[in-house]
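User: Can you predict the 3D structure for this chain?
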Amino acid sequence: MNAAFPIIPIPIPAPSLAGLPHGFLGRGGGVSTGIHAGLNVGLGSDDDRDAIRENRRRAVDAVLPGAALVTLHQVHSAEAVAVTAPFADDARPHADALVTDRPGLLLGILTADCVPVLLADHAAGVVGAAHAGWKGAIGGVTDATLAAMERLGASRDGIVAAIGPCIARASYEVDDAFRARFEADDPANERFFAEGRAGRHQFDIEAYVTARLAAAGVRRIAALGLDTYADPARFFSYRRATHRGESGYGRQISLIGLA
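Assistant: Here is the predicted structure, written as structure tokens:
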């Protein structure tokens, strides 16, 4: 493994979530090798299964030792599910957000350029995690997560959020059709695009997800501004792996739970 990687996973915290077990993890501290080198937790990757299991164990230990990890079969949807107990790996719901009010569960979202969002209502004891790729983001996955948290007793004005490492505008080139799709949904979305080379635009998905949360009534949002594509030493990136012609890519995990 790359000697530059930390020996143990070091979660990146968010100030808005202080006091709760949480963290955004990158490549550091894992046992995978080759193109998956580091803390690859992706069950959908072609990495060694024993390495993935060990990486997942290390990720849990770094955030909430002894907790039960809960992840999804992510499908770029706007579906959010409430969790009361862990799922077997082969029985994970097809969804892209989870919420819980049960201590001892650690909610995990996997990403490799998409936007990981962690949410909490400290007073109500409700937490959530969402995977917002562009399809889920425009489809309303964060809105669905907020609604699911409210059904567990959270209040909209009590929910805080944090947005972790994702692809940044400088690294996220899209075409005219992509931009047109967002502007058809809301003309104001033009502000999330910067002009690029001919027929291309640079999309700020972090800013878009932040704006969706704010428009939905979330008053405190911490956006960490970390670019997965531009930092191969710290993060996995699907787009970077594609541009390099690599045969696969790893996934990092973002975690939140209740002690």
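The chain is about 25% helix and 20% strand. The CA atoms of residues 8 and 29 lie 4 Å apart.
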